[in-house]
Design a protein that fits this description.
Elements (H helix, E strand, L loop, with lengths): L1 H5 L19 H16 L1 E7 L5 H11 L5 E7 L5 H11 L8 H18 L3 E7 L6 H10 L11 E6 L2 H6 L5 H4 L2 E7 L4 H14 L9 H11 L3 H17 L7 H11 L2
Parallel strand pairs: 1-4, 1-5, 2-3, 3-4
């Protein structure tokens, strides 16, 4: 009901927003620049950040920007299944019927990547999400699977992404060989207070409302309460809109923000 009350054509913080309409924060622009560099050089890249900071949505923008006739994008969250499930899924996504033995599976994956890149002129792009939960053995295996011609070339793009602890794990001696192969790395920071204001207005405009619905003190309270994390900003502002509608007010103030924060547990 709050949508029609304020004149929104859709929920302003709908997760299904088109990737071309995402808010371009400084962190967003920087990570896309790093990924564009990785597209040129190929090899390993690392993106870290806290939950809700915008890693996955930015990677979706990058994936959507790739020409499907030149790149084959494969996304794997490490939270689903075992490491062997991942290896088999990797082979299957490359068009192979997965082998059962681990060593045969590795050769199968390597051969499929080489065939895709050398014969079909398509660069495989692997996005491995939630990698902070990957085992030390799995991180070691990645160095083996993605080692081509004694590490002389990179016929692939592989993006590791996860929480900030992932960077700390890669810095350990046991993972140093993988860490040293990173072509680029980036830590995703939350929105600044000014960006929080611009982000909210951006999402409102794309939902069909251009007029201001939030006063300046409320913007400051939203930024302070959420720490600038886009997911939390969206949750909090949505709750603010609901409370403002229930009170039949026209503007979100700091009182509404504090009440909404308590209800949303933020």
């Amino acid at each position: 009901m709050y949508k029609s009350f304020f004149g929104f054509q859709q929920a302003p913080f709908d997760k299904g927003i088109d990737s071309s309409m995402l808010f371009q924060s400084e962190a967003y622009k920087e990570v896309l620049a790093r990924l564009d560099y990785l597209k040129t050089t190929r090899g390993f890249g690392l993106i870290t950040g806290d939950p809700g900071v915008g890693k996955t949505s930015t990677l979706r923008v990058f994936a959507d920007s790739l020409n499907p006739s030149l790149y084959k994008v494969m996304y794997f969250p490490m939270s689903s299944g075992t490491t062997m499930d991942f290896y088999r899924g990797l082979a299957f996504s490359l068009g192979e019927q997965p082998k059962f033995r681990k060593v045969e599976l590795f050769f199968q994956i390597q051969n499929a990547i080489t065939d895709l890149y050398d014969k079909r002129r398509i660069t495989p792009v692997f996005i491995l999400d939630e990698m902070q939960s990957a085992s030390a053995q799995f991180l070691h295996d990645l160095s083996i699977i993605f080692n081509f011609d004694m590490d002389k070339r990179n016929p692939f793009i592989l993006i590791l992404t996860g929480l900030p602890t992932l960077a700390n794990r890669l810095a350990l001696n046991q993972n140093r060989s993988l860490d040293q192969r990173l072509v680029t790395r980036f830590h995703f920071s939350p929105l600044t207070p000014d960006e929080v204001r611009d982000y909210i207005k951006h999402r409102f405009r794309h939902a069909g409302v251009s007029r201001n619905l939030i006063n300046e003190n409320a913007y400051e309270a939203i930024s302070s309460s959420t720490g600038g994390y886009p997911r939390l900003v969206g949750n909090l502002v949505t709750q603010c809109l609901i409370l403002t509608f229930q009170k039949q007010r026209d503007l979100i103030d700091e009182e509404i923000v504090f009440a909404a924060s308590a209800e949303a547990g933020i």
